[in-house]
């Protein structure tokens, strides 16, 4: 079983899964990033799989119900398309227009899975926006359709504070006018988008289209006028937002949802001049390795598109890849600059620029000793002695 993710989740079908599990017996449900409460109270006997523990899927991981597959996001579409990964049943949400159907709010691996599934069940929602670029192949078989007019799953902007604002100010200083940006979701990315309000002629080529982008577009900060590829169009793969952005996207040719084979392809990214990618991490160690997957020994994130965008940005003309994180956890007691990360999501050869509230560490082209100094300099002051001690004791060799 595969259920569409994020705001594209067919909420009525998803809500029916626990009862279906009880009626038909055990099955595994593949979920992506979960922003709804549909699975918060799934019975303990329900098994899930996913490409990460993003959003509320982390709750499933903490309960031991989620099997996290260590895959790049860009590999999922190809895996389902080739048949290497199979879903017997696919649940998705569609919008209907005069010319047929489109996948609403996502143009992701779900469509590739549906082409090879034994059964495809669609929730056709009269409130779903028409998303240019995600029009369904007329040969894609829909075995059952449930017509409804129900509220869409929304993902409100994450609250941020002064720490996030401080990090965002540093990042804004690294983004030139005319840049094309890719950005993740969460409090830090939202704060960065707020900090870009004074910029001009920004473009969007991103895995995710998020709510804060709507304000930048409305105020003329994002024009897409200087994009090398697809000028004039905000391009994404998923929409993780609220009704405000849904309304803006509906039938609007200034937005396009493209498959990951385009949005996450290193060849595409490398041709986008002034591409700046901005993504969050959980930990960075003194070697420059980045962990975006585990905290306190538990899955809380995933590989996602982080490696794709990091490598693509560094190949783009005048591009750069920025990794943002708080210098400590929210208590201040644990440093997020560490001697060794719990999991390596980005290897030290791929890391570019790391930003905390204490500054910017530009690590590309630095030797090992210089990297250590640069990273300790952006660690929280109360943890720098610990990092120096770990270095002396060989903890970062």
Percent helix among the residues? 25-40%
Provide the residue-averaged pLDDT: 95
Number of domains: 2
| CATH level-four homologous superfamily name of the largest domain | Acetyl-CoA hydrolase/transferase C-terminal domain
* Number of discrete helical segments: 13
Strand order of the largest sheet: 10-9-15-20-22-23
Q: Based on CA inertia axes, which overall geometry fits?
A: globular
The low-confidence runs, each spanning 5 or more residues with pLDDT under 50, are none
Which characteristics define this entry?
13 helices; Glutaconate Coenzyme A-transferase; 28% helix; alpha/beta; 2 domains; 397 residues; six-stranded mixed β-sheet; globular; five-stranded mixed β-sheet
Question: What is shown here, in short?
Answer:
The chain is α/β, with parallel strands linked by helices and 397 residues long.
Write up this protein.
This protein has a six-stranded mixed beta sheet with strand order 10-9-15-20-22-23, with helices on both faces. Strands 1, 5, 6, 7 and 8 form a five-stranded mixed beta sheet that branches. A three-stranded parallel beta sheet has the order 2-3-4. It is globular. The protein has helices at 11-24, 57-62, 73-82, 109-116, 162-172, 187-195, 211-218, 243-249, 260-263, 266-269, 306-315, 368-377, 381-392, and strands at residues 2-3, 28-30, 47-50, 66-68, 89-97, 100-103, 119-125, 144-148, 180-183, 203-204, 208-210, 234-236, 238-240, 255-257, 275-280, 283-285, 290-291, 294-295, 298-299, 320-324, 337-338, 353-356, 359-362. The mean pLDDT is 95. Helix content is 28%, strand content 21%. It is an alpha/beta fold. The protein folds into two domains: 2-148, Glutaconate Coenzyme A-transferase; 162-392, Glutaconate Coenzyme A-transferase (3-Layer(aba) Sandwich), CATH 3.40.1080. The protein has 13 helices and 23 strands. Strand 9, helix 6 and strand 10 form a beta-alpha-beta unit. It starts with a strand and ends in a 5-residue tail after the last helix.
């Amino acid at each position: 079983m595969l259920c569409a993710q994020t705001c594209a989740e067919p909420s009525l079908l998803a809500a029916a899964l626990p009862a279906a599990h009880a009626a038909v017996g055990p099955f595994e449900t593949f979920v992506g990033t979960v922003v709804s409460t549909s699975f918060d109270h799934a019975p303990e006997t329900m098994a899930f799989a996913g490409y990460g523990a993003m959003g509320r899927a982390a709750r499933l991981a903490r309960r031991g119900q989620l099997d996290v597959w260590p895959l790049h996001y860009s590999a999922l579409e190809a895996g389902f398309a080739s048949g290497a990964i199979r879903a017997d049943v696919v649940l998705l949400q569609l919008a209907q227009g005069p010319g047929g159907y489109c996948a609403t709010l996502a143009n992701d691996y779900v469509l590739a899975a549906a082409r090879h599934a034994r059964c495809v069940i669609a929730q056709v929602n009269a409130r779903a926006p028409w998303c240019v670029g995600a029009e369904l192949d007329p040969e894609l078989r829909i075995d059952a359709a449930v017509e409804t007019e129900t509220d869409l799953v929304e993902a409100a902007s994450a609250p941020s504070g002064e720490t996030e604002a401080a990090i965002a100010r540093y990042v804004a200083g690294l983004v030139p006018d005319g840049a094309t940006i890719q950005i993740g979701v969460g409090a830090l990315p939202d704060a960065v988008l707020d900090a870009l309000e004074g910029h001009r002629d920004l473009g969007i080529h991103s895995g995710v289209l998020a709510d804060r982008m709507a304000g930048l577009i409305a105020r003329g900060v994002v024009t897409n006028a200087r994009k090398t590829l697809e000028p004039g169009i905000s391009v994404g793969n998923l929409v993780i937002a609220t009704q405000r952005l849904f309304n803006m996207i509906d039938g609007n040719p200034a937005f396009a949802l493209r498959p990951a084979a385009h949005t996450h392809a290193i060849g595409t990214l490398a041709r986008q001049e002034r591409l700046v990618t901005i993504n969050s991490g959980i930990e960075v160690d003194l070697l420059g390795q980045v962990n975006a997957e585990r905290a306190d020994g538990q899955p809380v994130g995933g590989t996602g598109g982080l490696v794709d965008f990091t490598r693509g940005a560094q190949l783009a003309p005048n591009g750069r890849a920025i990794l943002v994180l708080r210098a400590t956890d929210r208590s201040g007691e644990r440093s997020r600059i560490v001697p060794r990360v719990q999991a390596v999501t980005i290897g030290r050869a791929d890391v570019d620029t790391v930003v905390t509230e204490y500054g910017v560490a530009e690590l590309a082209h630095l030797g090992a000793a210089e990297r250590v100094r640069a990273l300790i300099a952006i660690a929280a002051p109360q943890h720098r002695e610990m990092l120096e001690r770990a270095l002396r004791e060989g903890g970062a060799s």
